Amino acid sequence: MAPPRTLVLVLAGGAGGRLQLLTHDRAKPAVPFGGVNRLIDFPLSNCLHSGIADVWVSQQFHTTSLNDHLSSGRPWDLDRTTGGLLVIPPHQGTARGGWHAGTADSLWRNAELVREFGPDALVVVSADAVYRLDYADVVAEHLASGDAVTMVTTRVDPADAGRYGVVQAEDGRIVDYVYKPDEPRGDLVSNEVFVLDPGPVLDLLEELAADAGEDGLTDLGYELLPRLVEQGRAREHRFDGYWRDVGTVESYWEGHMDLLAGPPRIVLDDPAWPVRTHTRGWGAARLHDGAEVSDALVSPGATVAGSVSRSVLSPGAVVEAGATVVESVLLPGAVVRRGARVERSVLDDGVEVGPDAQVGGPGAVTLVGLRTTVGAGQRVPQGAVHPEPPED
């Protein structure tokens, strides 16, 4: 029996404003994670290990930063003569052209392409979470059920549940769904992986778009999914593995700390399910005499002569002699000069922390709590404290 014709649509067009400086000049799915990877590597690697070869990426903001990473799709075995990777930017010239106003709007604008492809199952995923999932297993379960949508669900910290679509389920069937509620009724949420029956779901999407009129559609969670739940056509696939949405600075930092936990909550280079990425030929990391490194991930091309603990260093990051980096994430090319201290912070590409300067730490209360970010290419002057302490 031939496998089902499956299409994965990665919705990679969000502005990523909650990641603040990290998405100032790059698409959210192109944000580095775990040293050498990017956020979009996770759904693409899931497709690879699930045996799914037809993957479309719908994008919108800072497209160059994402296209440079995607290239031909080769790291994920998507550089094929037939099928493979298709990048879909916003377009003009048709009745469905224009800027996407949300995930439902993005799907509606690409509905004709999906119908033309004719999949048995349409898998719609986001690109701002860290997890490993066999999409083929969810597709098989979905097709056997005959339902219109299967939502992959997971449990989260109850304090964070309001960031997601909160689900009530009974014996596998979803009986209630509320998107980003002010007062969540539980901690079971959709993790932004949906398997759809393309025909009836796209038909319903057309009806919703017609009802919306000039206002247009926004997100799937506001229009499409609640209607399918009301119609009794939605079920869940419970996911008990590691999953973390890293779409905020706080959760992005926490996700890196999860990599350093003992034992780590997720392993990116697990031989059974490696997270593939577009490599750029960095040489081996260099640890100088006197370097002190503990509980850290040090990427190829990084150089350490100082002290690094519970931190992740991306390719090209430099920690000079006498510098200290604690519980921090250094993105590509970030430099910490001699005598400087970086604590509980995220340094973006090319940041330079000057000699004897201090970034972050217990007293660095910022917009993201006790996590400090320094934007790409910025320089913290010699001896400075960043952010500046509040005046008395």
Automatic annotation (TrEMBL):
Every Nucleotidyl transferase domain range: 9-260
Stored CDD domains: ADP_Glucose_PP (cd02508)
Keywords noted in UniProt: Glycogen biosynthesis, Nucleotidyltransferase, Transferase
Listed SUPFAM superfamilies: Nucleotide-diphospho-sugar transferases (SSF53448), Trimeric LpxA-like enzymes (SSF51161)
InterPro entries registered for this protein in UniProt: ADP-Glc_PPase, GlmU/GlgC-like_hexapep, NTP_transferase_dom, Nucleotide-diphossugar_trans, Trimer_LpxA-like_sf
GO BP: any one term: glycogen biosynthetic process
Domain Glucose-1-phosphate adenylyltransferase/Bifunctional protein GlmU-like C-terminal hexapeptide: 291-360
Coiled-coil segments on the chain, per record: none
One Gene Ontology molecular-function label: glucose-1-phosphate adenylyltransferase activity
Family: Belongs to the bacterial/plant glucose-1-phosphate adenylyltransferase family.
Protein name: Glucose-1-phosphate adenylyltransferase
Organism: Vallicoccus soli
